[in-house]
């Protein structure tokens, strides 16, 4: 039954005219299973192919065709369930969810209603406020995870009075992951989706690509007086970015409060989020409310899974984001913030581990997060398209620690690497950036600089801050190639500091 | 959807809603959900027929099934499984063959949104 014991922090309450309100949020996330073929047929799941080229007679709902379960999709669902610390149901069953729509040729969706493959679980989320600070962890309950078929795609903009239908997506396996109504703020909701995405990516059970719609959320929102009786909820369908999830919740909570405070009542309904206008609106009116008439699919036998099979999958489960994060904090002594950024997904954590291998962990973290992620962000690139590989970044750090170049020169080498001019050694060689560590050579330049700035040199004893000026002059004279430690040491000696 | 399946779905609706008398409004609703056109003149006789069938199903409730596991299949066998390999598809012409209207590889149907 629908209960919501936790009361939101007062900071998350929403001020209304009649006092404070809290928002209660539950999510249904649809995650497309990563698999080669569909849940019940052998046609391909590849994205972006010619319309209707990946459709079998099963997918097209032809009479007499029988669905056959893709065993890999079952494995993927179980792995995801284990990643959610959830109960794996050894007995589960497929049901038909009956409704008519143009992109559903069978006239029903094969789903799991009474007996889902995964039962209750729990994950811990770390909400992040708008300033990027990590807030206290929140535990979010998982109600269930079930397998179902995706529908086809309707295209409405190819003709003014017709709909074009492509069934390529029809029958692709989805995992519907239903949370308990355990979230109390938009930040908690997006942190939950972010956490789910990290888990499925680490497990390789879904690519988590929200832009392609491979991970999308239905958001259930209601409001109540803090700790009071639950309100009527509305469901906002298919929200496909973290930002939109937060916007939709904010808008919807405000809408409920306004209606309730002006004496109205909330209709339980399905709404859609218009990302251009930043608002939600009615999608289906109540009289159209679906009555799905679920019943067991007579074409499919129940699924009986052996416990030994589940144990085997559990033993082979890859390291999950939480475990990687605490390992990063323990082994590399990274701050919570650094560890969080570097373990946001598998690609990032793998990348960092190559850079940090055998090197100073903090310096590796700074270069990875500050310089590389910054540069990628600026040029709108993903880490998997980075022009600077982990190996290249590691070699650059090596050249700093073996004093071939200074940290400052390294920044310009990095820029050139990012622009595809080669690896660190090639750029250092080609540009003649090798650091001068020869004390004799630097000494000559230091003497010249002091001779050229006699007045300043005399004042330096009284005003040691002038050291910075002299360091700058020497660096300028050597195009930044002099070893800073040597320069400092020589200047201090010669200026009598 | 094959007609027999539709009939099953219709009966399932009444049984799961624990109705044993079907009225004209019920027939209208279930016909709409099943996308079946039923003339007004047929409504009453269909309601009577459905009520009769439900009455017949009611008799089954007299059987004591307390110690009987629900039967989910006529044969005791494990669900057969497929390997995750692409073995089908690439038959667009066949898929679209019966479509009343198609264009550029798509099915074309009356507009489904406003």
What key phrases describe this protein's structure?
heterodimer, A: 497 residues, alpha+beta, Arc Repressor Mutant, subunit A, three-stranded antiparallel beta sheet, 19% strand, elongated, B: 114 residues, mainly alpha, two-stranded antiparallel sheet, flat
Q: Write down the overall mean pLDDT of chain B.
A: 85
- What proportion strand of chain B? 5-15%
Q: Which residue ranges of chain B are poorly predicted, with pLDDT under 50 across at least 5 consecutive positions?
A: none
Order of helices and strands of chain B: HHHEHEE
Main sheet properties of chain B: 2 strands, antiparallel
Q: What is the radius of gyration of chain A computed over CA atoms, rounded to a whole number of angstroms?
A: 30 Å
Shape of chain B: flat
CA distance, first residue to last residue of chain B = 26 Å
Treating each run of at least 4 consecutive H or I residues as one helix, how many helices of chain A?
Answer: 15
Q: Say how many strands of chain A there are.
A: 17
- Looking at the structure, what is the overall shape of chain A? elongated
Rg over CA atoms of chain B: 21 Å
How many domains of chain A?
3
What does this structure look like?
The complex is a heterodimer of chains A (497) and B (114). Chain A folds into 3 domains: 10-309, no CATH class; 319-431, no CATH class; 439-495, Arc Repressor Mutant, subunit A (Orthogonal Bundle). In chain A, 37% of the residues lie in helices and 19% in strands. Chain A is built from 15 helices and 17 strands. In chain A, strands 1, 2, 7, 8, 11, 12, 13, 14 and 15 form a 9-stranded mixed beta sheet that branches. In chain A, strands 6-5-16 form a 3-stranded antiparallel beta sheet, with no helix packed on it. A two-stranded antiparallel ribbon of chain A has the order 4-17. In chain A, β9 and β10 form a beta hairpin. In chain A, α2 (186-203) packs antiparallel against α3 and α9 packs antiparallel against α10. Chain B has a domain at 3-60. Chain B is mainly α and 114 residues long. Chain B contains 4 helices and 3 strands, in the order αααβαββ. Classes of the chains: A alpha+beta (497), B mainly alpha (114). At the A-B interface, β3, α1, β10, β16 and β17 of A face α1, β1, α4 and β3 of B. β3 (69-70) of chain A pairs parallel with β1 of chain B.
């Amino acid at each position: 039954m629908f209960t919501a014991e936790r009361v939101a922090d007062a900071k998350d309450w929403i001020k209304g005219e009649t006092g404070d309100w809290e928002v209660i949020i539950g999510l249904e996330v649809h995650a497309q299973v990563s698999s080669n073929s569909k849940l019940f047929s052998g046609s391909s799941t590849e994205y972006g192919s010619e319309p209707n080229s990946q459709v079998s007679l099963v997918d097209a709902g032809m009479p007499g065709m029988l669905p056959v379960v893709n065993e890999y999709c079952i494995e993927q669902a179980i792995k995801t369930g284990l990643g959610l610390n959830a109960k794996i149901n050894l007995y589960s069953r497929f049901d038909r969810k009956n409704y008519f729509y143009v992109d559903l040729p069978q006239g029903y969706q094969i789903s799991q209603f009474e007996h889902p493959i995964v039962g209750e679980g729990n994950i811990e989320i770390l909400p992040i406020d708008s300033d990027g600070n990590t807030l206290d962890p929140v535990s979010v309950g998982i109600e269930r995870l079930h397998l179902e078929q995706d529908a086809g795609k309707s295209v409405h903009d190819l003709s003014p009075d017709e709909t074009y239908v492509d069934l390529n997506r029809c029958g692709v396996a989805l995992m519907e992951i239903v949370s308990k109504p355990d979230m109390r703020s938009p930040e908690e909701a997006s942190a939950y989706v972010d956490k789910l995405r990290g888990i499925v990516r680490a497990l390789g059970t879904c690519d988590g690509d929200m832009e392609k719609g491979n991970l999308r959320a239905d958001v259930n929102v209601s409001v109540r007086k803090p700790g009071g009786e639950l309100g009527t909820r509305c469901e906002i369908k298919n929200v496909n970015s973290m930002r939109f999830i937060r916007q939709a919740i904010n808008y919807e909570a405000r809408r409920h409060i306004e209606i309730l405070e002006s004496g109205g009542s909330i209709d339980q309904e399905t709404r859609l989020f218009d990302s251009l206008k930043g608002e939600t609106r009615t999608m289906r009116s109540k009289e159209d409310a679906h009555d799905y008439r679920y019943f067991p699919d007579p074409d499919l036998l129940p699924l009986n899974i052996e416990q030994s099979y589940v144990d085997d999958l559990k033993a082979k489960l890859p390291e999950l984001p939480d475990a990687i994060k605490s390992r990063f904090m323990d082994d590399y002594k990274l701050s919570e913030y650094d560890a969080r950024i570097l373990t946001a997904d598998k690609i990032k954590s793998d990348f960092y581990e190559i850079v940090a291998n055998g090197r100073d962990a903090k310096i590796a973290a700074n270069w990875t997060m500050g310089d590389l992620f910054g540069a990628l962000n600026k040029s709108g690139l993903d880490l998997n398209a980075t022009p600077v590989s982990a190996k290249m970044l590691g070699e650059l750090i090596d050249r700093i620690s073996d004093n071939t170049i200074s940290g400052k020169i390294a920044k310009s080498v990095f820029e050139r690497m990012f622009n595809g001019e080669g690896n660190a050694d090639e750029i250092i060689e080609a540009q003649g950036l090798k650091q001068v560590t020869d004390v004799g050579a630097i000494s000559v330049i230091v003497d010249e600089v002091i001779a050229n700035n006699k007045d300043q040199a005399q004042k330096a004893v009284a005003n040691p801050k002038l050291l910075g000026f002299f360091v700058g002059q020497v660096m300028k004279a050597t195009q930044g190639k002099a070893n800073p430690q040597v320069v400092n040491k020589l200047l201090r000696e010669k200026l009598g500091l | 959807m094959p007609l027999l399946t539709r009939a099953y779905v219709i009966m399932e609706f009444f049984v799961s809603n624990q109705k044993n008398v079907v009225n004209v409004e019920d027939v209208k609703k279930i016909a709409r959900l099943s996308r079946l056109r039923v003339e007004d003149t047929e409504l009453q006789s269909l309601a009577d027929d459905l009520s009769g069938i439900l009455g017949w199903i009611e008799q089954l409730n007299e059987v004591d099934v307390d110690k009987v596991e629900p039967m989910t299949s006529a044969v005791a066998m494990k669900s057969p499984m497929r390997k995750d390999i692409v073995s089908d598809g690439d038959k667009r012409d066949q898929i679209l063959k019966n479509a009343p209207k198609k264009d550029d590889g798509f099915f074309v149907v009356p507009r489904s949104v406003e």
